[in-house]
Amino acid sequence: MSLLQTNNVVKRFGGLVAVNKMTFSVDEGHIVSIIGPNGAGKTTFFNSLTGIYKPEEGEILFKDHSLIGLRPDQVSARGISRTFQNIRLFGSMSVIENILVGMHIRLKQNALDALFRSKKFNEEEKDAEQKASALMEYVGLKNVGNELARNLPYGGQRRIEIARALAANPTLLLLDEPTAGMNPNETEDAIKLFRRIRDEKGITILLIEHDMRVVMGISEYISVMDYGEKIAEGTPQEIRKNQRVIEAYLGRDAASSKD
Amino acid sequence: MKTFFSELFKKANSGFWPIVITLGFLIVGTISVYQSPRSLSAFLTLMLCPLLLYFMKINMKIKIFIGLLLIIVILPVLGIRNIFYLEVIFQMAVFAALALGLNIVIGMAGLLDLGYVAFYAVGAYTWAIFGSKQLSLLHSIPGAAPAGAEFTLSPTYFWLFLFLGVGLAALAGILLGLPVLRLRGDYLAIVTLGFGEVIRVLALNLDKPLNLTNGPQGITPIQRPPLPPEFIIGPIRTLLTPIVGRPPTDAEFYNVFFYFIALFIIMIAIMVATRLEDSRIGRAWTAIREDETAAIAMGIPLVRMKLAAFAAGASFAGAMGVLYSANRTFVSPETFSFLQSIGVLTMVILGGLGSIPGVIFGASAVVILNIQVLQNFSLYLSELRQSDAVIPIINFAWKDLSNQLDPAKYQKLVFGIILVLMMIFRPSGLIPAERRKRELVEEKE
Q1: Helix (H, G, I), strand (E, B) or coil at A148
Q2: Is B69 exposed, middle or buried (0-12, 13-18, 19+ CB in 10 A)?
Q3: Residue A125: which of A156, A153, A100, A150 has the closest Cα?
């Protein structure tokens, strides 16, 4: 049974069809990648999944419930967390607070608890703080809890974003180009981290990625998009040999002259 | 130069120095205000104490003791000798509460609200209408009130209306919030500015068909809450008589009374603001300010949180509105002009957007500047004008100085200059916001 299933999703911006009849599924426990040239509609597709855009047509099912018409916060409450292509941290909040914001939907305290510092509030805050610290360590950050998020180096910010997304206890984690701008060592670490997230926490991962080493290294399944459409899907081996994919990436002429 | 001062501050803030300096200011300030109740510098010396208490490294218990001594004993006693000081502190408390409320909306949630004073008006008119004779004058023309009209409610209802004012202002906050939820930045600012004006114009024009607000003439008299009973006041009066030099009158007691109510409300406001800031709700507000898209993707319900910010911010203004109308026994639409909103905004920006101690300091500084420093400066200039003094070298006689040059008339200019200078030199305010440092388990390694 697939965890996420989309049928014929269409997203248009005026005359431009950014996502065209995307039919796509992610099985529980898998790491699935979407690849494609710049402007292929990958991020738009992500935004349609998470409720930031409303697709014009088609259906999106998550755990057999439709996500169409839900607001991003409601989608997040259903168990889908995400990171962003261009890091979107809360820059002037501390690292630990960033992760605590990720826990927003899990915390049960209300305004009165906060005003009277009820027992429930204190316990929950302490517990949340500990969990946030643990998450920070899980993604490989140490002793930076009180730093402002914007003061961290690039790789660190990527990690916080992932920790923040994990803080919501998601079933499905969407990563939008998580290794963009990383050096080979950092990329290596990131790949390990993604594997651990899947293996240890059992979270299904869907990622958009350009770095072929990452994609081929960890995906069980790959979908390729070009001009808003899915042009191929399959295992890494199948994708590597697929003629249409090679054309999309290298251009028709280059692809044919290669032979 | 800068390092010299920071070194000096470091030295002054270690060992036994903090307590010596703070007590020194307290004692010198108290004595000099007692000796010359009209001196501005004496009052400023005393007013430095709370600031020192905040910055200096002193044992928390001693800090609280000195603070309470200052608030409960020294200031009221000195205040009875010169009522004006109580008025200054009352205004400081009122504006500090307004600044704290606006700080929730602008500083924490990042929603630029230029019509904030509307909520202050809602609170003020709530008690003004029910705490005056207005309800029995509903069918009369403004200015032609028949004699013998009765107060509708007894003055003790003031306490109930303090809560009603909070509730109504919060409701007004939500009503304003609903239509502007989709707007950000400049657009939001324009709409809130409009809303502020709508409330003021409503107050101006709701004298017909039913005379609810008495139009531009405003409502007066408004009742004050009754003083505490004689068995509390009596002993205090006997105690104060030798210090003040005469038995304090009821009017003076009223000033002390309002001073305490204002302090009580500001304490609650500070507590509410700090506790909300450091909770799930406060974090959600800050997240929205930092990045709306990321915040909503993290599961924060934008609509509910923005409305909560508007409501919480407005409620502070509502409480102070009720208190203000009772204190002045008079409200009129004039008080709630757009410039008043800008004034509160100046306080927030001067102190530091998002910084609770900052905005309190900002409010105090602006109030003192406004009603003391500028006034004193005006007074000084007019004295010079009447004297025969001449500026040497350029040979300018002070009495030729134009009457137009009256610093008290340049309030708005001063506000403007403050805002511009702050934006250039210290955009994060005099006491910038800081994130709370947590003691994290992982750091104990």
Answers
A1: strand
A2: middle
A3: A100
- Residue matched to tokens 């239509």: B179
What ranges do the domains of chain A cover? 1-79+171-259, 89-169
Confidence check: pLDDT of B134 > 80: yes
Strands A229-234 and A31-35: unpaired
Task: Give chain B's count of helices (H) and strands (E).
Answer: 18, 2
Rounded Cα gap, residues A167 and A164, in angstroms: 5
Whole-angstrom CA distances from B202 to B197, B324, B336 are 8, 19, 11
Inter-chain residue contact A90 with B291, CB threshold 8 Å: yes
Give per-residue pLDDT as tens, A212-229.
889 998 999 999 999 999
Q: What is the dihedral of CA B345, B349, B353, B356, to 10 degrees?
A: -80
**How far off is chain A from B177, nearest CA to CA, in Å?**
19
pLDDT tens-digit series, residues A101-123: 999 999 999 999 999 999 999 99
- pLDDT surpassing 90 at residue A203: yes
Residue written as token pair 């998601």: A170
Three-class DSSP category at B146: coil
For every residue of B16-70, DSSP letters joined together read THHHHHHHHHHHHHHHHHHH-TT-HHHHHHHHHHHHHHHHS---HHHHHHHHHII
Report which DSSP code applies to A180. T
Cα–Cα distance between A60 and A149 in angstroms, integer? 34
Count the Cβ atoms, other than its own, within 10 Å of residue B365: 20
Q: What is the pLDDT of residue B1?
A: 63
Sign of CA dihedral B140, B141, B147, B148: positive
Neighbours of B123 (CB within 10 A): 31
Judge whether residue A254 has pLDDT over 80: no
Distance (Å) from the C-alpha of residue A143 to the closest C-alpha of chain B? Answer: 6
| Residue B287: band (very low, low, confident or very high) from pLDDT cuts 50, 70, 90 | very high
SS3 category, A167: helix
A223: CB partners within 8 A, 6+ apart: A24, A32, A33, A34, A35, A230, A232, A233
Rounded distance, CA B375 to CA B370, Å? 7
Pairing type for strands A65-66 and A57-62 reads antiparallel
Compute the mean pLDDT over every residue in chain B, rounded to the nearest whole number: 89
Q: Give the pLDDT score at B445.
A: 40
Chain B residues close to A129, C-beta within 8 Å: 438, 440
What's the burial of B85, exposed, middle or buried (CB within 10 Å: 0-12/13-18/19+)? Answer: buried
Interface of A with B in 200-229 (CB under 8 A): none
Fold of A1-79+171-259: Rossmann fold (3.40.50)
- Contact state of A90 with B295 under an 8 Å Cβ cutoff: yes
Cα–Cα nearest to B284, from A107, A75, A104: A104
Encode pLDDT of B300-352 as tens digits. 999 999 999 999 999 999 999 999 999 999 999 999 999 899 999 999 999 99
Residue B300's CB is within 10 A of a number of other CB atoms, namely: 25
Which residues does chain A have within 8 Å of residue B352's beta carbon, measured at their own beta carbons?
Answer: none
Domains of chain B by residue range: 1-81, 91-351
| A168: chain B residues, CB-CB within 8 Å | 298-299
- Cβ pair A100, A128 in contact under 8 A: yes
Cβ pair B71, B263 in contact under 8 A:
yes
Strands A2-13 and A57-62, sheet pairing: antiparallel
